[in-house]
Write a structure and sequence with these properties.
Elements (H helix, E strand, L loop, with lengths): L2 E5 L2 E3 L5 E8 L7 E7 L6 E6 L5 E3 L7 E6 L4 E6 L8 E10 L5 E5 L3 E5 L2
Parallel strand pairs: 2-11
Antiparallel strand pairs: 1-3, 3-8, 4-5, 4-9, 5-6, 7-8, 9-10, 9-11
């Protein structure tokens, strides 16, 4: 059974920091691209950051210079360090694992999401 379990969300003041964690099980983690997405109320889900299995990293423009994504292949985990948080970062953050198999079929899994609220 595949599981992606996020943790680390919560309430933080503007300018503060949070670190999200996503622990994966049931997949060959090292083969997967890992990503963080977020969805604010009334808005579409958007990519925050992703790290490919080779280590290549991409950030949304809105979080560049503030957020850092990292992966620990030894512990099947991916992290999102969020600094200088703003009210507009408030959203449900979800972990995503994505893999294209040998037949060209996309295999994708999602975590349940963790709420991040930035407010004074």
């Amino acid at each position: 059974q595949v599981q992606l379990v996020e943790s680390g969300g919560g309430l933080v003041q503007p300018g503060g920091s949070l670190r999200l964690s996503c622990a994966a099980s049931g997949i060959a983690f090292i083969m997967y691209q890992m990503a963080w997405y977020r969805q604010a109320p009334g808005q579409q889900r958007e990519l925050v950051a992703r790290v490919r299995r080779g280590g290549d990293i991409l950030y949304a423009d809105s979080v560049k210079g503030r957020f850092i994504i990292s992966r620990d292949n030894a512990n099947d985990s991916v992290y999102l360090q969020m600094n200088s948080l703003k009210a507009e970062d408030t959203a449900v953050y979800s972990c995503n694992a994505n893999y294209i198999n040998g037949l060209g079929v996309e295999v994708e899994y999602w975590g349940q999401g963790t709420q991040v609220t930035v407010s004074s």
